[in-house]
Amino acid sequence: MRVQFNSQVNFLNATGDENMSSEERFRCASSRRTFLKMAGAGAGATGLFTGMPLVAAQSDYPDLARARTQHESAGIVPPERTYRMMEWEFHTPPEEHFNINFAAATRAAKDAGAESMMFYSQDHWGYAHYPSDVAVRHPHLDRDVFGTEVSLARQLGMSVVCYYSLQFNNQCVLSHPDWGWVNEQGEQQRDRWYMTCLDSPYRSYVVGMIGEIFSRYEVDELFLDIFGIQFVLYHAEG
Question: What is the pTM of this model?
């Protein structure tokens, strides 16, 4: 496993050693279909790349069946059974700060009738909202924003969905151009934010983050946003 350091992030360059070409590294990775199945399985996603160190041991993950039983006993409404979910949209550019009273905001959401909350673990800019050891942290992340949100929602008896921006990621594409989606002329594609390509080592980066999230936080579901965005652009152009 090769680890490249860029600012405060450890970029995981898929499988293989540093002398492997991008094509060879890609061949070591699994198919997109397998990736989506594993990502949808939540904590089990870290087993997708056998050559990649796991973020946490299997025993470090919460017992899902036990958690669901406890939530049901406590009257917590799961995300798929409510129309009262509130999403906090946090696509936060690098110059912004997290000057928010999270406790007051979460209480206001609860008082407004929210039964489930959707919090951002990674935004379109490619910034993690928690102290990740795998991903690029937001430059003004002065606390565990995602962890704080999850904890406060749990204290108020609300279920939690983890939002993850899958294919918009400026940080990864700017640092690893070979991870980006390109057109026939080899030009990086973007729709305000740069698009990543899942047929690249970027997949192992994603799986590393998912492993962190499910081993550290008590979340009910994972929402993968911006999947297949490149096809929308190509079809729009005919």
Answer: 0.73
